[in-house]
Design a protein that fits this description.
120 residues; mainly alpha; two-stranded antiparallel sheet
Length: 120
């Protein structure tokens, strides 16, 4: 599974997690997917990679996506993270022990991407 559709930015959009998505994440964060910008970068990269494969022009900016992510329900964010961590490209680059432990989710929940300061 490397593709998911979610309601974001007022419409149903696809997110594709391929090599292009991982390159975009690296460019946006300057590091691996486990840093403080990862939640926003993962969703932006998935949206961007999906547009690229479908030869569509993105109708969003990184700033738009950051705002949209803040408004997403936790369950949707978790679905996206699950799709991303199960993608072939992610699994090729992360040691199998990390994938089994699903260590990607922990840093995301600490960022306020899933839970805002107001949520506790």
């Amino acid at each position: 599974m490397s593709y998911i559709q979610i309601e974001i930015g007022g419409k149903l959009r696809g997110l594709k997690f391929n090599q292009g998505a991982l390159i975009t994440i690296s460019e946006l964060t300057g590091e691996t997917v486990q840093n403080s910008k990862a939640g926003y970068a993962v969703i932006f990269a998935g949206l961007d990679a999906n547009c690229f494969v479908k030869r569509e022009q993105p109708d969003f900016t990184l700033e738009d996506v950051c705002d949209w992510v803040d408004d997403l329900p936790e369950s949707v964010v978790m679905e996206v993270i699950e799709c991303f961590t199960k993608s072939k490209e992610y699994q090729k680059r992360v040691p199998s022990d990390d994938v089994k432990k699903n260590q990607f989710q922990e840093p995301i929940t600490e960022l306020g991407v899933i839970k805002s300061d107001a949520d506790g």
